[in-house]
Amino acid sequence: METKLKRIAEVAKANPNEKFTSLAHLINSEMLTQCHKEMKGKKAAGVDSVTKQEYEEHLSGNLDELVARLKRHAYKPQPVKRVYIPKEGTDKKRPLGIPAYEDKLVQSALAKVMNAIYEQDFLECSFGFRPERGAHDALKVLNRIVNMEDINYVVDTDIKGFFDNVSHEWLMKFVAHRIADTNVQRLIVRFLKSGIMEAGIKYDTHSGTPQGGVCSPILGNLYLHYSLDIWFEKIVRKRSRGAAYMVRYADDSVFCFQYEDDARVFYKELVTRLAKFNLEIAEDKTKIIRLNKDNNDNDGNSFDFLGFTHYVDKDRYVKVKTSKKKFRASLIKCKIWIRENRTLPVKEFMRRIRIKMKGHINYFGVTYNRRMISNFVFEVRKLIFKWLNRRSQRRSFDWIDYAKFLIKFPLPPRHTNVKLLVLGAGESYVL
């Protein structure tokens, strides 16, 4: 199967105008078995109430029957189960979509096929949900761009409810540029129209990508590739008077310009461009920032991207630090976990909190961000002291005893996990 996908990728790369007319046969028992093996086992069940373990009890028969339905076009995705989970630090809840297990398998197989084709088309400025590309890669590229001498303005954009407002009509036009297989087109449409089930009531979906769907990332990237990336690369950059660059991670994008007039013209045209494809910017979250590298007046001279605040330091470099929003959210998450798990045996408690802290440190431990990592470790250290002392009516220990305790059960070290800038010979990283 990997050989077939590799061959498709080679053809797609060698022939940018090639339309693939025979792809549906690739979604067979072999590929679906591989998708099943890759599926996480402890995920919540959808409207079918079927878990990975239950499906696996009769895996061969289940997949044979699924493939048969796919071949005779009798397969119809079930509605996505919608549940709501709390937002850390607020009383609000956010919706979460849970597809049925079989639908996860088919979507996973469909995503593999589409990725093999469209990975050859996607531009270098796109990073989200792509193989061997991640948030740190996007941060590295953006950091190099904003530190170029001729980059002075940034347009920080936010698309309002992107995944809920994708136009099905436009999306299928974009799919048709490369996929002419009507069976695959039909399958995508059925996923788009599968609906949502909430509190036992089914709601139709007239726009948007499948909630919680494995294929939603590739469909979202495809939509923005044609509606935004190509437009910026082939029209905006060529028309701009000075340098112009973009960095996109899923629906989160930053645009960098040399001249203010280029940035302002782009902002105005972006509104019109997105409206054409049923999208709109969140005006309260979209702004033009002057980087002010030539002086120390940097009030409001910052923007957030992928959980980091980018700001101009006194040495005139654009540096990064954990955004206030993400810092607070991480602390609240740790606080809730500590409070709910403080009765665990001490050794297990400390093992698990270290794992949680390492996740934050590994992501936010980048060049220039050592102080915010230190602040995070310090604040969690105080939370552990507070809640372990509430395990009983008597205080477990004072600060002196706690210091000895941390020698035995140390917290994760503060470290720089990712270096953002590639500096010249003889220069060192500023941490």
How would you describe what is shown here?
With 431 residues, the protein is an alpha+beta fold. The protein contains 15 helices and 11 strands. The protein has a 4-stranded mixed β-sheet, with no helix packed on it. It has a 4-stranded antiparallel β-sheet with strand order 6-7-3-8, sandwiched between helices. The chain has a 3-stranded antiparallel β-sheet with strand order 9-10-11. Helix 12 (324-341) runs parallel beside helix 14 (370-388). The longest helix has 24 residues, at 216-239. It is globular and about 70 Å long. The two termini are 46 Å apart. 32% of the residues are buried. The model is unreliable at 422-431 (pLDDT under 50).
Q: What general outline do the C-alpha atoms trace?
A: globular
Write down how many β-strands occur, each being a DSSP E stretch of 2 or more residues.
Answer: 11
Q: Summarize the helix and strand pattern as letters.
A: HHHHEEHHEHHHEEHEEHEEEEHHHH
Amino-to-carboxy terminus distance? 46 Å
Strand content: 5-15%
Tell me the structural class: alpha+beta
- Work out the radius of gyration: 25 Å
